[in-house]
Amino acid sequence: MGTYIVGAIVFGIIAAIIVTRVRAARRGESGCSCGCSGCDAKNACETKE
């Protein structure tokens, strides 16, 4: 029974992270939240800056 409880907690945490990332992407926020001006991978970003 303990395995199911721990599994449910881990699943809940992962689901919360995914939901947060999807909401941020819909708002147009970058993945790292630090801006693209000094980023080495700014050409790979999908933002509209």
Derived from helix and strand composition plus strand pairing, the structural class reads mainly alpha
**On the 0-100 scale, what is the average pLDDT?**
80
User: What's the SSE pattern?
Assistant: H
Distance between the termini: 50 Å
What is the beta-strand fraction? under 5%
Largest beta sheet, briefly? none
How many strand elements?
0
Helical proportion, percent range = 40-55%
Broad shape: elongated
Q: If you compute it from the alpha carbons, what radius of gyration comes out, rounded to the nearest whole angstrom? A: 16 Å
Report low-confidence residues grouped into runs of 5 or more.
Answer: none
Structure annotation, total helices: 1
Structure description:
- By secondary structure, this protein is mostly helical.
- The chain contains one helix and no strands.
- It is elongated, with a radius of gyration of 16 Å.
- The model has no long low-confidence stretch (mean pLDDT 80).
List the helices and strands and how they pair.
Elements: H1 2-26
Short synopsis of the structure:
With 49 residues, the chain is mostly helical.
Describe this protein with a few key phrases.
49 residues, mainly alpha
